[in-house]
Amino acid sequence: MTAKKKKKRRLLRLLIILLLLAAAFIVLCCITLGQDETGTLTASGEIAGLELPAPIDGEQIVRHTGYTLSYNEEYELPSYVAYELTKDEVLGGGEREDSFRSDPAVSTGSASLDDYRGSGYDRGHMAPAADFKWSEQAMSDTFYMSNMAPQEPSFNRGIWADLEAVVRTMAYDNGKVYVVTGPVLTDGPYETIGDNGVAIPKRFYKTVLDYTDPDIKAIGFVLPNEGSDRSLQSYAMSIDDVEEITGLDFYPALPDDEEEAIESTFRTSDWNFTEYIPGDDTHDAADTAYVQGEPDLKSLILDTAIMVFVDLKTEVFRLLGMTGIAERFGLI
Q1: CATH superfamily of domain region 39-294
Q2: CA triple 10-16-21, angle to 5 deg
Q3: Is 125 designated active site?
Q4: Most buried residue, 90, 171, 273, 287, by CB count within 10 Å?
Q5: Per-10-residue mean pLDDT for the chain, 332 residues long?
Q6: From the candidates 64, 125, 168, 206, which is the catalytic residue?
């Protein structure tokens, strides 16, 4: 092969590499569109019923002090329980008094205390009593059986309780959050307990929306109904992902453009995963190690790489004099 042909081949390979790099750059620009998208949003003021998912056909909406639920008669479970949680409510000083009872507000009749007796499953709160210490009536209302679902004891008293405590930290840090939680009811069939045939969920979900300036954001979780030593961050996902798993439509009261931006992305680094400990402003790292978990090296590397690339693409477009065009097409 002549030197001229070799040179042409090298140039061709170089051109192909450059084209591949350019294509990769464009793809990465598109992939990272939403990473900081919510950072440019501002809250549109108070939105009534912001915590409520879209209504579910055939289900009764039940309202109790501080929370709202949608009751699924087929499974004798709430499809969702939704409520607003503020910093002041987190700081409430009421004492827990267990008063489990059937819910007279459910027109078809709710699950009963007897359904759980001897089953080996905990009566797992969806709206946790500790979030409602601000009112004696509100806390009492969390003990209606319509707010319960069968949970493995190691789950209810372990990672699920820890997630509830972390959500209280999120409310404390951000001033107010909107929480929706419940069992996943799209992956049946299910085993049941009791004469009423209460379904035993395989998974549970929780979504959290911070709709306060300056950092509007949201995050979701789906966890299997079993004990776990994994970090809570490893179960985190976008609201869109939780919607796909549950079939529910969360936060439909948001303006459409905001809903799309907020629900399509999440970053665990935007949230404090320290477990809230009542009456203690300082947290021992050893006490929260289980909640915080060991750093996920792969997630840490990915988050860092994304942040570096976001800065890099901004600088590239600036050097090319294409900042305005990139902004117009949402690339930066």
Answers
A1: Extracellular Endonuclease, subunit A (3.40.570.10)
A2: 125
A3: yes
A4: 171
A5: 70 75 67 49 79 98 98 98 96 84 98 97 97 95 98 98 97 96 97 98 98 93 97 96 98 96 95 83 42 50 60 70 63 54
A6: 125
